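Run log // design_07
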């Protein structure tokens, strides 16, 4: 008996702009009109009431808001399209008539909402599927670290350790719940900057297991993976289950997914690879090919993606004892005599074929027994049951019983016509042969079980020895890896220390030379300024002072003006040395005041950090030569000026005499 949901909401659009909906509720057989709702109010109403289903005649009425509406539905609430899947939809009136529901005005939105709720209550319609059975869980820091010193570094390391602990906690919970997943992490400061889980389960399966968290040092966000296209699943078993062939499927997960399928006779039936293939599309592709009885992988342990698919199909999971090597995979493909398009198809096909080879002796034994019993036509069905865990006799009997319904129908018809003793005798003989066959099968299987137990015991002993050897090998490798990392870190620190020592040694030698030169009196110390600015000048005066006769060394004089040059002249600076040429305004002021200025290249200035010296003899000679040069230039300019004055006086006198002569001539006339 179908269990009715507690609460169903039927909705239908009233107007498009603004968009409003008519809402009718169905609660334990009682219908109630709820009124008009905007989309926002409808979502709030659904989130507060948490109905079992929201029924609508067509999801297209939600328009562009469909995805937003589906994301807002609370956990456990289904959106149902009662008129059928797209392309196969029927009218509400025809469905209502079919299920004995009285239909009213088809143009009344409340009547449409009522019919939708009633049909959904009777299991009519298709659930709209917006999400894959896949969830992304992101674990990151909760707030920015910002800039800072030692305390900020400690805080950052603490947060990264908290992220690592939270990732480990979620990983442990998923493993305890036996939920498959893949994990990607980003290491930082001996902790984790982030962790991202791809969990192959529906969001509902994680309820109460993993909770989102925000606002603290660590954030946990849970995001269901949306389907590229909406899916539609019937509320009731309206579609007959097709009888499909049994297959062995190999899967290579990753950014590009590889899928290979072979039948139980080792023939390839499908080979495919696709980039960014969602898990839902993987399910659909495999379902279209057949029903997998084994899902295989080429790596050990099996990825969570492959475990999820095997569990969804209730298929056996094949995992090799150790991950297959590339040369092993190529050898398997050469045996098949086939070429593939890429490595993903190769890996998937190698996994499927490896699983088939493991089962091949058992499958060949099944074929031989079926030929003896005359059931070779049912070979695939029997093999599938044997793979699922049935013994051969049980599998053959189960397949034989599937054919019984037709015979029973025939028997029933004969029974109506009258008893037939011959039929019962034939049935008794058939059952006696079946009992004899099953007894032989039972003895053979007991012998096989004894041999298998001996083999299992021998292999278990080998496995224990092998596990111990592997454990010791892993411990040695881990110790070696830790030592190698320690050596690399120490070598790096040693290189850095040597570099610092070399630089400091060079600086020390230079300082010693400068001290020797200064002590001998053969060098003149310079007061160093980084830039020629008022702030830097104030700093020098405050720290060491500037006295008359001091010599200044400026690293970068660019941007200085006349005012600061005049200040230097007024303070009685004897000379100015710069690494770069001084600006023109500064040069004019210093030249006018006869304050020499040079570049460091002209005087071979020796400088280490905040100290600088120049040889006294070189400096005195340069000052003398420059002042002498300026004196000669000044004398030349003075001579030129006097000559100009004499010439001007001569011209003026000549004009004066000429003017007096002209006046004398006029008087005589």
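design_07 sequence
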């Amino acid at each position: 008996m179908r269990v009715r949901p507690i609460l169903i909401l039927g909705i239908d659009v009233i107007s498009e702009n603004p968009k409003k909906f008519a809402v009718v509720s169905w609660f334990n057989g009682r219908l109630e009109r709820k009124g008009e709702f905007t989309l926002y109010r409808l979502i709030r109403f659904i989130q507060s009431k948490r109905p079992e289903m929201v029924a609508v005649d067509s999801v297209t009425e939600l328009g562009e808001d469909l995805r937003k509406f589906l994301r807002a539905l609370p956990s456990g609430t289904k959106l149902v399209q009662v008129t059928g899947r797209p392309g196969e939809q029927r009218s509400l009136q025809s469905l209502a008539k079919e299920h004995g529901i009285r239909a009213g005005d088809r143009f009344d939105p409340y009547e449409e909402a009522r019919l939708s709720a009633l049909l959904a209550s009777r299991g009519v319609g298709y659930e709209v599927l917006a999400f894959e059975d896949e969830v992304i869980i992101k674990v990151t820091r909760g707030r920015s670290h910002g800039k800072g010193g030692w305390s900020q570094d400690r805080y950052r390391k603490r947060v990264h350790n908290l992220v690592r602990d939270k990732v480990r906690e979620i990983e442990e919970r998923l493993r305890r719940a036996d939920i498959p997943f893949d994990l990607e992490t980003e290491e930082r400061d001996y902790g984790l900057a982030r962790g991202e889980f791809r969990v192959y389960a529906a969001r509902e399966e994680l309820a109460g297991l993993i909770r989102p968290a925000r606002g603290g040092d660590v954030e946990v966000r849970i995001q269901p993976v949306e389907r590229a296209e909406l899916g539609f699943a019937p509320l009731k078993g309206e579609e007959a289950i097709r009888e499909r062939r049994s297959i062995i499927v190999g899967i290579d997960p990753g950014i590009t997914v590889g899928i290979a399928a072979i039948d139980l006779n080792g023939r390839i039936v499908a080979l495919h690879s696709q980039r960014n293939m969602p898990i839902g599309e993987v399910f659909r592709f495999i379902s279209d090919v057949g029903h997998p009885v084994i899902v295989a992988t080429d790596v050990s342990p099996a990825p969570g993606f492959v475990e999820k698919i095997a569990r969804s199909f209730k298929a056996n999971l094949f995992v090799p004892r150790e991950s297959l090597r590339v040369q092993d995979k190529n050898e398997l493909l050469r045996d098949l005599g086939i070429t593939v398009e890429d490595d993903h198809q190769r890996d998937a096909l190698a996994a499927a074929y490896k699983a088939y080879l493991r089962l091949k002796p058992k499958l060949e034994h099944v074929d031989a027994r079926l030929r003896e019993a005359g059931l070779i036509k049912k070979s695939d069905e029997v093999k599938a049951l044997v793979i699922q865990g049935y013994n051969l006799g049980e599998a053959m009997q189960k397949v034989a019983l599937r054919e019984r319904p037709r015979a029973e129908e025939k028997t029933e018809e004969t029974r109506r016509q009258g008893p037939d003793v011959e039929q019962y005798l034939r049935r008794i003989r058939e059952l006696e042969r079946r009992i004899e066959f099953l007894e032989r099968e039972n003895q053979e299987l007991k012998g096989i079980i004894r041999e298998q137990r001996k083999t299992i015991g021998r292999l278990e002993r080998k496995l224990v020895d092998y596990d111990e050897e592997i454990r010791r090998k892993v411990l040695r490798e881990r110790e070696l890896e830790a030592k190698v990392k320690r050596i690399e870190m120490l070598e790096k620190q040693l290189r850095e220390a040597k570099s610092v020592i070399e630089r400091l040694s060079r600086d020390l030698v230079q300082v010693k030379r400068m001290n020797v030169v200064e002590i001998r009196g053969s060098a003149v110390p310079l007061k160093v300024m980084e830039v020629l600015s008022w702030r830097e000048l104030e700093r020098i005066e405050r720290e060491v002072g500037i006295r008359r006769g001091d010599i200044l060394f400026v690293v970068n004089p660019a941007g200085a003006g006349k005012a600061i040059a005049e200040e230097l002249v007024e303070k009685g600076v004897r000379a100015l040395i710069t690494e770069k040429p001084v600006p023109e305004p500064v040069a004019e002021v210093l030249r006018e005041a006869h304050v020499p200025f040079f570049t460091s290249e002209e005087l071979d200035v020796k400088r280490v950090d905040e100290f600088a010296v120049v040889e006294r003899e070189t400096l005195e000679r340069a000052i003398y030569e420059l002042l002498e040069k300026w004196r000669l230039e000044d004398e030349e300019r003075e001579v030129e000026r006097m000559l100009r004055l004499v010439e001007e006086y001569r011209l003026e006198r000549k004009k004066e005499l000429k003017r007096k002569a002209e006046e004398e001539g006029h008087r005589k006339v």
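The radius of gyration is 48 Å.
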